[in-house]
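Translate sequence into structure tokens.
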Amino acid sequence: MSGKIWRNVFYCIAVILFGILIYLVLNNHDGQWIMLLGTFISLLAARFDDLAKFKLSKDGLEGEMRQVIDEAKATLEQLHSVAETQSRMILWSMEAHGRWSGLNLRDQNQMRDAVVSNLKALRLPEAKIEHVLSVEYPYIDHDYATYVVRGLNRSLKEDKLKAWNEFYSPDVRKGIGYQPTPDELEKFLASLDLISDEVKERLEDYRYFLKTRKHRRPEEWMKSRD
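Result follows.
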């Protein structure tokens, strides 16, 4: 086979191994490190033909070395790009579909930690890891808005219940990204006399997450979907 064909073969192997890695992460199975290493080796093997061109001639040594280094950097950048894209897909799937399949917050945390651990093992820059994690934020924002008002409409009388239904009309709250802000919630809940000490704490939790992308009261957040 020509060098080009072998390169394509090893690229295909790398994609397959990375797909298996995604499956292992999603299902919390062992073998993630082996698949990660196999993916990296396959990408290096795809560049073997370039590495084999390395010559020890006096005139060509520096130029060939520079080319090999450039090729190695390109391979690592390709691996980073694939890892970043696939990791965002994993976390998006976890947030978009996991909640309906019984995946609790503890399972989500374990899956997220596994994804981040693999990205750090690949030495992906922190900014790119943050970009991966950011795919979850719209869903968590929505969950916080829901968490703030959980159970508050159960004892509302007719007039207040009507105001509640209007505020949460499907024409207004269409889903992820259409949730009210903490300030909007605070104003609305105050109009219905629903501001308690616990509601104030939840509003602060919501504001804190929007500002820092961290949980202010992790233990309470873990209970939020019980």
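Note: The chain has two domains: 3-124, 139-223.
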